[in-house]
Design a protein that fits this description.
The chain has a single domain, classed as Rossmann fold (3-Layer(aba) Sandwich). The chain is globular, with a radius of gyration of 17 Å. It has 10 helices and 8 strands. With 234 residues, the protein is an alpha/beta fold.
């Protein structure tokens, strides 16, 4: 029996893309999903949605007990179309609101609360379901879906990451942007529950000197190599 005969169905493929803030995970993951005809899930948006809801409800995001007690209340739903991903809280589209400065400043402490991670982990695994999806985050290959057929750890040097993020935000101060990104990485790497780390078996892709198209191509190539039956747009 050939390796192609024993390869998993490409429709069940899960590609896990983890990495540092500002390394291009979102654009890359959406591009890979579009190229391969897969769904897409931004787990970071789910944590941002939880954070947005906590702030709206007036809950102190640094009060771990209060955040833990409230974590089960909001209904968070993620759309999986890579061309038009959505995120709603209690039926309200918050795609724009979750990218605000207040949410960005608060999302790391919220993400460190075990009850929040447990709640969203359940939702993330429900969305992944039978596969056919590219999932981006900080702990996808290590915690959320360690059985993923393709695992990628995406990084870039701090200067490149800050320049990209500042451009996305319409020309933010580079030094302050870099400081914010590094602080988020420090918090997320040091938390006790599901820290940011490169998963066992992950391929490290440094995007510092690569174009977006080149990064996407490298991950598409990994998918086709791991699953001989996979083809673009399948």
């Amino acid at each position: 029996m050939s390796s192609a005969d024993t390869a998993p169905d490409p429709g069940s493929l899960v590609i896990a893309v983890d990495g540092t803030s500002g390394s291009g995970k979102s654009s890359t993951s959406r591009g890979v999903a579009e190229r391969l005809g897969l769904r897409y899930l931004d787990t970071g948006a789910m944590f941002r949605a939880m954070t947005w809801w906590l702030l709206r409800e007036g809950i102190d995001v640094r009060d771990v007990a209060a955040v833990a007690a409230a974590a089960g209340r909001p209904r968070i739903e993620s759309g999986t179309d890579p061309l038009a991903p959505t995120i709603t809280v209690d039926g309200v589209d918050v795609s724009v609101e979750i990218r605000g400065e207040d949410v960005t400043a608060a999302v790391s402490p919220v993400s460190a609360v075990p009850e929040v991670r447990a709640r969203l982990l359940e939702l993330q695994r429900d969305v992944i379901g039978d596969g056919g999806i590219v999932v981006e985050g900080r702990d996808i290959g290590s915690v959320v879906w360690p059985q993923a057929e393709v695992k990628v750890y995406l990084s870039a040097d701090p200067d490149a990451r800050a320049a990209r993020r500042a451009a996305e935000e319409g020309g933010s101060d580079l030094a302050l942007t870099q400081e914010s990104l590094l602080e988020r990485d420090r918090i997320d790497s040091g938390r006790a529950t599901a820290p940011l780390t490169m998963a066992d078996g992950a391929v490290h892709v440094d995007s510092t000197h690569l174009t977006l198209a080149e990064v996407i191509e490298s991950i598409v190539a990994l998918a086709v190599r791991v699953l001989p039956g996979a083809r673009e747009g399948s």
